[in-house]
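FW: tagging you since you asked about this chain on Friday. Here's the raw sequence from the shared folder, copied in full. Didn't touch anything.
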Amino acid sequence: MTQVSLVDLIAGARAGLLVSFPTDTVPALAALPEKASLIFEAKQRSQDKPLILMGASAEDLWPYVQGNENELQIWQELANRHWPGALTLVLPASDKIPKQMNPTDPTTIGIRVPQSAIAQAILTQTGPLATTSANFSGQQPLQKLAEIAEQFPQVITLEATEFNGEISGVGVPSTVSKWTGKNWEILRQGTVKLIF
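HL: got it, structure written out here
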């Protein structure tokens, strides 16, 4: 694994390489959406487990979903309450989403804006990235740079000096809530508790 500066990590991500960085939940493996297959390969992840599209702001992510005016308003209200934060919304995907993000069901996409200064700094420069937790599929998310380095030697990560003392995430993956067309269904409970 290569440990690099923030500038070099952003350049690597933009060049289509696999990168890892801290978020507010667990460290992420990330790549450009059209390079999402790199993540599936590295994690040995089943194709029916879609990735999350992470962005620096809600405005960066709305073009990747499609709904009617009423739905968009409902989604935006929920996002406004919990973003940036540990909530992933699974919504109908627009045609901007590459099939590699969700190979078995390209009709939906999970989107999230992390509450992490370092993740925001990266995503502002790269645009939305395909992300998932840094670990082999089915194992616990890795928390330490050294563990990520050991499991994923091909991944570019940040030098520890680039964290500027930022506390790593809570270690619990995000809450995942899916829009059913009428209401929300919780697919995974994380630290964010939704009340409808």
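FW: The first strand starts at residue 2 and ends at 4.
HL: agreed, and The chain has one domain: 2-188.
FW: great, closing this out.
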